[in-house]
Amino acid sequence: MSDPKNMRRVVIADDDADMRMLVEISARKAGLQLVAAATDGDEAWRAIETHRPDLIVLDVSMPGMSGLDVCRLIRSTPTLAHIPVLLLSAGVSGASREAGTQAGADDFMPKPFSPKMLTEKLITLSAGRTLSA
After folding, report:
1. Contact status, residue 91 vs residue 62, Cβ threshold 8 Å
2. Please, are residues 85 and 74 in contact by the beta-carbon 8 Å criterion?
């Protein structure tokens, strides 16, 4: 097993407990250390500020601040702006993807998703690359 001090750290935010658990499992399979699992946008923002993770996974629709709001805050904060952000959304339209891009997300994944594909995206993003154009 990898030394936890050398593992890339991730913050996950989703208001759905089952979805959060699926993302956590995929993150662990991707070799990431989960430092916080938030249930809403406000909690996610506090966790991001506190933990300064290497990767962030946000659900678009959450109570409080949305994932888009949190993503915009990340991008407007110089000490956090470099962190890759993956948005998860039940909205699969081009408009949903465009809203994510405009908010500054590095990648976007529609729900429902394949846990294997999510793991692959997390590996790619944690290595500093994006999959989507």
Report:
1. no
2. yes
- Boundaries of every domain in the chain: 4-126
Assigned token pair, 107: 């990648």
**What letter does residue 61 receive in the DSSP assignment?**
S
Smallest CA-to-CA distance from 53 within 12, 95, 97 is with: 12
Instruction: Encode pLDDT of 108-121 as tens digits.
Output: 998 888 999 999 99
Q: Name the residue with tokens 């997300």.
A: 105
Superfamily of domain 4-126: Response regulator (3.40.50.2300)
Look up residue 2 and give its two tokens: 């990898």
The model's pTM is 0.91
Which residues contact residue 20 at a Cβ distance below 8 angstroms, ignoring those fewer than 6 apart? 12, 14, 37, 39
